[in-house]
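fyi for ur records
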Amino acid sequence: MRIVKLTEETRNDLLSTLLKRSPNQYIEYEDKVSEIVENVRSRKDEALFEYTEKFDHISLTPETVRVTEEEIEEAYREVDPKLTEVIRKALKNIRAYHEKQRRNSWFDSQENGILLGQKISPLSRVGVYVPGGKAVYPSSVLMNVVPAKVAGVKQIIMTTPCRDGKVSPNTLVAAHEAGVDAIFKVGGAQAIAALAHGTQTIPKVDKIVGPGNIFVALAKKAVYGFTGIDSIAGPSEITVLADGTANARYVAADLLSQAEHDELASSILVTTSGKLAEDVSTQIDEFLKTLPRADIIRKSLDNYGYILLVDTLEEGINVVDEIAPEHLEIVTSNPFDTMTRVRNAGAMFLGQYSSEPLGDYFAGPNHILPTNGTARFFSPLSVDDFVKKSSVIYYSEEALRAVHEDIESFAKAEELTAHANSIAVRFDQEER
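which gave:
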């Protein structure tokens, strides 16, 4: 793994290279995705089934597109009962964490007949997209569905691509345990279009959540406005901020855990220790001799893997904030203090034993996180993503009379005389 001294030049090169991974850089696919979305919008199931046969080589009908109760029962028979128990344990942790994010409506009653407030309402129907191409992700099922259930969403629709006509049993068990209401055997941009616009078999949803490949990401971008989306997710990424106290073998293993996702994944170590840098590089070479996905990992590290040497921890914190990584591991002598000085990261993992996969599967916080530097202004998926807020305003006649001239003056200053009249008409007779 390459080791480079951080300079202004290497900093700019790194940030420029990482930005190339953004879905916004793949404009050559946008026309094709737009064509798919429009065809599904206009031709509905007919186009949806055509694209599924073309891309996934599966022939579907209105009778076979939805996963049946029998298929779910079969999945339970195929999945190792030990894994089912692990899924249930993870669900308990994830649910407990997200329960703490619940919001309540509030109302503030003031003097003179004024009441102001905020009403919280769950979304009615949400679509969850679960990848199923290069790998299957039952953990993503849990992370998308649990906060929606906690928020009170009435109906959760899931779409996921098939392999040989079947949805992964692990995915089906996770979906059933989490409480998904309906599962459809479609994936790709066509699935996103179906969720956004509705077809004869798949209902239109209020919001679409869940990660996917570049076509899924661009499709979510294309349908935004017709429906809500969580984000336009890019490839996975990890940054480890470490000093000389870190265990090189642990750090190397954690960097590789993200590099194995795909060739566009990014793994970066930022460290003040030259010895740690060399040791981590050596450990990575050793791991690659035995890891089954070594070919994918090597391509990922060759393109987007870095070990950055910095002079001070403060310099390391600054470059981490510029990267704004999806996952940040802090392995320093005092990770809790270091954490307070970092501004931009999707999820922070503190200390030697808080490995990133702990968050992927089990700890409880959501693993649907901002990527490609969007942690500068975006947050992990949460209960907030599945509710909407309505302002509540009540003024009595007495309360409005006390301020109506002020409001009319403000409206007239903007030359919106109908606005002013809307207030004045309530008092003009009594003041003549």
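The CA atoms of residues 72 and 172 lie 6 Å apart. thats all i got for now
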